[in-house]
Amino acid sequence: MPGKPKGLPKTGGRKPGTPNKTTEKARELFTGILANQVSSGKVESALDEIYEESKLKYLAIFEKLAKYFTAQKLDVTSKDEQLEGFIVKSVSDADRNDSK
User: Fold this and answer.
1) Which end of the chain has the smaller Cβ count within 10 Å, N or C?
2) What count of Cα atoms within 13 Å lies in the side-chain half-sphere of residue 91?
3) Angle of helix 42-53 relative to helix 55-66, nearest 10 degrees?
């Protein structure tokens, strides 16, 4: 089968932004299972056992879980390059009162 000629746009398939139905169903299934595990106390119980076994291991697992429930910081200013000549000025309460 020769396929499409080079340079021609892609045709067919899902339109941009259309969700993948299989992925959506898998997420719903996993979310349901997870909700059941949490509401039954199994997740908390397992974390308690890990805490008793090793506080360090507990913290490592807790850190991994936290990534899914807290906002991630994103560097949008420096593009991971060192900033030169960048000065951060702190404004104290005294400075604020002086400007009034």
Assistant:
1) N
2) 5
3) 140
User: Which phi-psi region, left, alpha or beta, contains residue 14 (left: φ > 0; alpha: ψ -120 to 50)?
Assistant: beta
Does the predicted model carry a pTM greater than 0.70? no
Domain ranges of the chain: 21-98
Which amino acid is residue 75, in one-letter code? Answer: D
Per-residue pLDDT tens over the stretch 15-56? 888 888 899 999 999 999 999 999 999 999 999 999 999 999
DSSP state of 6: T
Please give the Cα distance from 52 to 57 (Å, whole number).
10
Q: How is residue 1 written in tokens?
A: 């089968």
Nearest Cα to Cα of residue 47 among 63, 33, 36, 70: 63
